[in-house]
Amino acid sequence: MAWVADAGPRWWSSAVVQQVYLRSFADSSGDGVGDLAGLRSRLPYLAALGVDAVWVTPHYESPQEDHGYDVADPRAVDPLFGTLADVDALVAEAHGAGLRVLLDLVPNHTSRQRQWFVDALAAAPGSRERARYLFRDGRGPGGDEPPNDWGSVFGGPGWERVVEADGRPGQWYLHLFAPGQPDLDWSNEEVRADAEQTLRFWLDRGIDGFRVDVAHGLVKADGLPDDPFPQVMTESSFPTHGSPQWDQPGVHEVYRRWRRLLDSYGPDRVLVGELWVRDPERHAAYVRPDELHLAFAFQLLEAEFTAAAWREAIGDSLAATASVGSPVTWVLGNHDVARMATRLGSVEASRAAQLAMLALPGPAFLYAGDELGLPEVDVPAAHRQDPIWERSGHTAPGRDGCRVPLPWSGSAPPFGFTTAATAWLPQPAAWAALTVEAQEGDPLSTLVLVRGALAVRRALLGGPLAWREGLPDGVLGWDRVGGSAPVTCVLNPTAAGVEVALAGRLVLASAPVGYDGTTLELPPTSCAWLSPA
Ligand code: NOJ
């Protein structure tokens, strides 16, 4: 069914989306791992929080070598997480509660257990089966050297050598992530058609859209040349511009095709790219009107928590996307980076940062648990599961510290997350003070702050951002004047208290502030929303 484009803003252009790391949200089956039925049981929590949508990390059939980002069948549900009926029920119940559901699409690579890859290993070099992946002969005598010098984002080389049917060492295959995640060859039409079949499969079931994993990585430079930046390994620190693995021009054609496909389902289905592309103009190219609807702007997440760095990150992102007519999608946390409360130095800083982000124009993504102010956990080495820990030779702890299951209730682990004795990653005993139950009863809690911010945002905020000039050094402020009431956001990321001359009424603050209607006293690392006089 085609639809006629209209100029009105769509739901996603100012939505707040809660990212649910499925393994760590809520467990209903009692195996210590979060699942779809657990998520369904907590939909009332998400509705009460006030978000518009939920993004669910991969629930597909998978050997879980990278916790679901290694997909063995993109059109089947892993029994660990439930059944297809659970997905249908999730969509129906979420929609009933006023929430949309985004799934996580993983197009860059598959699991090594996907039938395609099993077939590729069994087939000969040059075969149709191998052509779906990036198999190449090695370099040097006997082909003993990898085909190029690309590394894996998770550490170590980006190539794995296979054993051919005759028992001899053979070709190599590319895996930008773990060896269990072979990269697909996106110049292959069969690969493109299969991804579109996956999109339709879920869209037909009523899914509202997708977060697209490694959206800048699908297409590789012709000929797979050596990497001019071979020393850089981690996903969030590689230079994307000029690297042959990332941000290749050919990837845009993929998204033009997908956009046409989504548009055929109406104007409300959405594609959100995970885009580690630093240059604002190159980033904006992905959200041109006929490509992805949205793309994470990691600029803010990566910026130092200072007024100057935030102003630059916000200003550059807004300017670049304005040139293509798209909003900026803000994000301060996810399952790949250290928890915000630890990264920014304190819970106070994370409260201030979240309040400030929620005052920006455009959609925002919140990582479940950040609304509780959860800190990064130093997961004991024996419990670490992220492949980065092994691949780095135990030099990088990996991402388990931000993936510890949520504390819901009670005074001891597993805090209502599961009926099993322990969750899949151990929760700190100190989280007793941070449970949803504890915070719901505390008007000064981070949970109550975020709920309040979402309610005010929904009721009042609108219009573009206009910077407030002349604020004290180190302080950042902006106005939003197009909503049902004007709101001014003032952020003090510094370690000192400041006084700001501003006439109006206090709406919300991340910390106890002093205000007499004309002078705002902001404590260190705090943020306030005012309704100006
Ligand atoms: C990005 C995902 O967020 C991360 O968790 C995953 O390991 C990589 N992509 C590979 O799929």
What is the topology?
Blueprint: E1 16-20, H1 36-41, H2 43-49, E2 53-56, E3 60-61, E4 73-77, H3 84-96, E5 100-105, H4 115-122, E6 135-136, E7 159-163, E8 169-174, H5 189-203, E9 209-212, H6 251-263, E10 270-273, H7 280-284, E11 294-297, H8 299-302, H9 307-322, E12 329-331, H10 340-343, H11 347-358, E13 364-367, H12 387-391, H13 436-440, H14 446-460, E14 465-467, E15 476-480, E16 487-492, E17 498-501, E18 504-509, E19 514-515, E20 519-522, E21 526-532
Parallel strand pairs: 1-2, 1-13, 2-5, 5-9, 9-10, 10-11, 11-12, 12-13
Antiparallel strand pairs: 3-4, 6-8, 7-8, 14-15, 15-16, 16-21, 17-20, 18-21, 19-20
Helix pairs in contact: 5-6, 11-14
Bound molecules: 1-deoxynojirimycin (NOJ).
1-deoxynojirimycin binds at residues 66, 69, 106, 177, 213-214, 274, 335-336.
Can you walk me through this structure?
It is a single chain. With 533 residues, the chain is of the alpha/beta class. The chain is built from 14 helices and 21 strands. It has helices at 36-41, 43-49, 84-96, 115-122, 189-203, 251-263, 280-284, 299-302, 307-322, 340-343, 347-358, 387-391, 436-440, 446-460, and strands at residues 16-20, 53-56, 60-61, 73-77, 100-105, 135-136, 159-163, 169-174, 209-212, 270-273, 294-297, 329-331, 364-367, 465-467, 476-480, 487-492, 498-501, 504-509, 514-515, 519-522, 526-532. The strands form five sheets. The protein has an eight-stranded parallel barrel with strand order 1-2-5-9-10-11-12-13. Strands 14-15-16-21-18 form a five-stranded antiparallel sheet. β9, α6 (251-263) and β10 (270-273) form a beta-alpha-beta unit. α5 (189-203) runs parallel beside α6 (251-263) and α11 runs parallel beside α14. The protein is globular. The model is unreliable at 1-6 (pLDDT under 50). It binds 1-deoxynojirimycin (NOJ). Residues 66, 69, 106, 177, 213-214, 274, 335-336 line the site of 1-deoxynojirimycin.
